[in-house]
Amino acid sequence: MTAQIIDGKAFAAKVRGQVAEHVAQLKGAHGIIPGLAVVLVGEDPASQVYVRSKGKQTTEVGMNSYEHKLPAETGEAELLALIAQLNNDPKVHGILVQLPLPDHMNSDLVINAIDPAKDVDGFHISNVGLLGTGQKSMVPCTPLGCLMMLREHHGSLSGLNAVVVGRSNIVGKPMAQLLLGDSCTVTIAHSRTKDLTEVCRRADILVAAVGRAEMITGDYVKPGATVIDVGINRIERDGKNKLVGDAHFDSCAEVAGAITPVPGGVGPMTIACLLANTLTATCRANGLDEPQGLTA
Prior knowledge:
This protein is an alpha/beta fold.
């Protein structure tokens, strides 16, 4: 069996197109322009690349982009004061503080200082609790992107067996909650799960989010299953740096029915869903109907 490739790059372009249409309607009908504020502390090279990409894509869909770049030695109190200012700014509908923060800052304290209604990363403890209890929340972008691609591929997810390999607060746990919300039977597994291969082999949907390069091989995959690879790992192979996922693509693709590649799978959906979340936050803040198909 040769797996169908789930093209996250193409799907993300489609989502951005839908967001741009809704933004144009908001502006035309109500004079409202969604605004996304991104805060970067320090000069982490990967974070700088992400922030540039986010800013570019934000303006491309017609939103306002507000970037706040602070030096690495910025005090925690100064960062919290900036967040308070953004919380109170009516032009800002979404706030994202780029992680990781410098070591002298408490990431949990900073994230929980963001107004939950503007927490477009979905990391605030209030949004975590709302998602866990099946209530309306801001949903973390990467799991939301995975859910969108699964819905597009399968239609209904009801009754399917899903295994999420990974228990992080950013991907594994919210991914499980979203799949439960779509009536999957969900197992959260991890690197210490006994008989992990057998657990994974029962899955109709296998989400690899364990943070280990190519750990999930074809032996883990039920024939015809859908494999969603969240991992992003840089390895050296044949003297060259290569980007690979948590799933071993070639062996998994021989068994799976569908699979996301790395790169070009889940990654592009993360920023697309950040824009979708900013749009959703804008609509909620103004008492307007939320866009269909762009949230959980």
